[in-house]
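Problem: given the chain below (272 residues), write out its structure.
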Amino acid sequence: MKEYDFYIVPTPIGNLGDITARAVEVLKSVDLIACEDMRVTQKLLNHFDIKTKCISYHKFNEKERIDKFLELLNEGKKIALVSDAGTPLFCDPGAVIVKELRKNNFSITALAGANAVVTFLSQISREAEDFTFVGFLPKSQAQIENILRKNKTTDLVFYDSPNRILNTLEIISDVRHNPQVALGRELTKIFEEIVIDSCDNVINHFKTNPMKGEIVAMVFRDDTTSDEIDLDEKINILKSKNFKAKEISTILSSLYNLNKNEVYKKIIDEFC
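Solution.
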């Protein structure tokens, strides 16, 4: 097997049996494992009798660790990067060190393995292959609304936490008019659950079935026509130029032979 300086190693997102034989081999063979939380990673290493030393590497010390890693790699040491669960660089640390290592011409490889988005989407029937993954949604309602409007024509996939998801779903229902959504929790674990329904029905389901653990969710694309999609885009452009709702409805109704009152109502209902 070809040797590399730096290995990006996915770890199970729940079921420890999902780790690959190659991942175990690499974690045993390297000189150091960089991990988010050493307590979490140590449980995995103990389970597979891996004795390799760990060093903390998380979002608060990414830049601080660069010199240390470069020093070790220049000495000929091999390093593996893991996150607490899943694949590093997917909403987890790693981008900073990978960028620096490529600048310094160190060899890097990534192993195939567990990823919550792929595990989730492989259970969801979709109309098309394309989708948009935005990681964790921002905390601001206005920012969430903006993301939802920008991604009406593609399946929108995101992570969320149990204490936020009901509020997120209510925003989605309001902005996208109760669309079809899919929600997955406890993936690969005993209590794994995938729910696919209208947004309001999913809200009602989880109001009576409290959630635990990280959540992956998807808002299905709108079944809108290209004309409707173009209209949304034109409204957004005019709004960005600080035109008021009445001005926008007048402009668009004149240019595209649309009903002025209907355009105005659309602006007020969906964009204000």
